[in-house]
Amino acid sequence: MSTREQLITSTRELLWERGYVGTSPKAVLQRAGVGQGSMYHHFSGKRDLALAAIRRTAEELRAKAEEQFTATGTALERISAYLQRERDVLKGCPVGRLTQDPDVMADPALRAPVDETFDWLRHRLAAVLKEGRDDGELNAAMNPAETASMVVAVLQGGYVLARAAHSTEPFQHAVAGVLGLLACQATTPSQ
Amino acid sequence: MSTREQLITSTRELLWERGYVGTSPKAVLQRAGVGQGSMYHHFSGKRDLALAAIRRTAEELRAKAEEQFTATGTALERISAYLQRERDVLKGCPVGRLTQDPDVMADPALRAPVDETFDWLRHRLAAVLKEGRDDGELNAAMNPAETASMVVAVLQGGYVLARAAHSTEPFQHAVAGVLGLLACQATTPSQ
DNA sequence: GTCTATATGTCGATAGAC
DNA sequence: GTCTATCGACATATAGAC
């Protein structure tokens, strides 16, 4: 991996673990195993490096989610697969985490990838839900946009509860809870 | 307000806005309008002051939630009132926010009030849901513990989405979405 | 391109005057 | 109790050698 890529990788890890405010250039350099000069050669500074890291993380998250959404199966099956896919629950969401960083939220360029990721996620999930509704799989009264926002919120909130408890249980419960309610929206029994 | 109380108040505000890592003693003192000596007289340091602030914030959150849970009305009405009560959505949850702070999560004493708050919230909501189920108001198949975790997760995740979008809309959608699904659990039509 | 040396400010805490 | 002075360490960036 090139020095530039190594710097981006280390920054992504540290942003996930400690956030923007809690991540120093020094810590990035130590983890990447390069000197200070390399960083200021490839990037103009901490902000510029974080921008590259955040964009990369957002791209990857979207690509991974799209895999679940375009898989085979009913709308409910795909959403269930998305919610239940393997996740590092106690580490939380590398994108959602950034919303708690005041310096990231205050900077339009740093916030943009975060905003776009959740906007995309909500619309993508709403499309899957609408598909299910139009196919007669889901209750006609179900509101796709609202339900999609709720599904994304359950994931993000599930991470919060899991971290607070130092346990994945609340996350699993929240996911099971939403899947239970969604199953009631199925016009044909899911079993 | 006493100097000690003023310090706790300023710390609570800054922890909410900037988190533990992003809050310096200097910033607390400036906001409180006191000198450095006052802080180290009343508290042993940043951690000790944060501990007092976090405990106070957790207490207040529980007291405010309990108001909604013990109000009059059906289980669904009380949960709906809790979800739709006035909130500073874009500021997020002052307790949930702390779960993204690595130094808070790594310190058992600082994490305890956060853990206890969400644990209490989930159990308290589960009790209200169970009550509604046992009274025949809600579907007998509804799992109170899972549904309670889901409701808390929707709130916490709603904050994340709202902050990412710089708009309360995703939060409102998520709440509307969960209320829509919960209404389907009512054994008698809610209208 | 990558390194080390250096600069300037802030962090978190201590010392001691009043 | 509250203040200012001071401390060693670290944050972020620049300079300049190789």
TrEMBL record, chains A, B:
Keyword Transcription: yes
InterPro entries in the record: Homeodomain-like_sf, HTH_TetR, Tet_transcr_reg_TetR-rel_C_sf, TetR_C
Presence of the UniProt keyword Transcription in the record: yes
Species per Swiss-Prot/TrEMBL record: Streptomyces tropicalis
Key words of the record: DNA-binding, Transcription, Transcription regulation
Organism lineage string: Bacteria, Bacillati, Actinomycetota, Actinomycetes, Kitasatosporales
Official protein name in the record: TetR/AcrR family transcriptional regulator
Domain HTH tetR-type, first and last residues per copy: 1-61
DNA bind region: 24-43
